[in-house]
């Protein structure tokens, strides 16, 4: 976009204006509250205003993440909608993204170690012996998998591919979730093995149901 910054800014503003008009024209669904839809629109407008002042590509196929989804959705001649089976959503911290249509208020956006996409998970209660049994099996399998991978790497003589991930002790909390689907939130890059958070309190072990 060098030497065409002003033109690009105007295209970005046009893209966001189209989306805002589009969202304003939508009627809330049976399960949607008017207040929540108004909150979504307000959050989207604030997020859109921030994007025009950033040095990032907002339009064309060189855009990425949520901006690419928005561009593709309005692009003429697209055979498959980028929002089929999905809907716009905001997080508590004001980020905007695209989530599965089944997503509900209170669901969590979680980065899974080694995954290329973030996931929407819904907390579920697991009480009694069933939950305890699952948690014990999960810890056992995680310890076994990490240990076996390290042995195989040593056998082949190849550099280790398993990171220094804390082993799940019996004291490690395990959260139980139902998997809703993948999601895309602007600016959020899922963790990889080489990008684990420095603070272990940001990590947890999850059982997906």
Protein model, in words:
- The chain is of the alpha+beta class and 209 residues long.
- The protein folds into 2 domains: 1-84, no CATH class; 102-209, no CATH class.
- 37% of the residues lie in helices and 17% in strands.
- Strands 1, 2, 3, 4, 5 and 6 form a 6-stranded mixed β-sheet that branches.
- β1 (86-90) and β2 form a beta hairpin.
- The protein is globular and about 60 Å long.
- Mean pLDDT is 78; it is low at 151-155.
Major sheet description? 6 strands, mixed
Q: Helix share of residues?
A: 25-40%
Total strand segments: 6
N-to-C span: 46 Å
Mean pLDDT comes to 78
The run of helices and strands is: HHHEEEEHEE
Supply the number of helical segments.
4
- Proportion of strand residues: 15-25%
| pLDDT < 50 stretches | 151-155
Radius of gyration from CA coordinates:
21 Å
Label the overall shape. Answer: globular
Structural class: alpha+beta
Into how many domains do the coordinates divide?
Answer: 2
Which tags fit this structure?
alpha+beta, 209 residues, 4 helices, globular, 17% strand, 2 domains
Please render the helix and strand layout as text.
Elements: H1 5-25, H2 34-51, H3 65-74, E1 86-90, E2 96-100, E3 108-111, E4 118-123, H4 128-156, E5 174-185, E6 205-208
Parallel strand pairs: 5-6
Antiparallel strand pairs: 1-2, 2-5, 3-4, 4-5
Helix pairs in contact: 1-2
Question: What's this entry about, in short?
Answer:
The protein has 209 residues and is of the alpha+beta class.
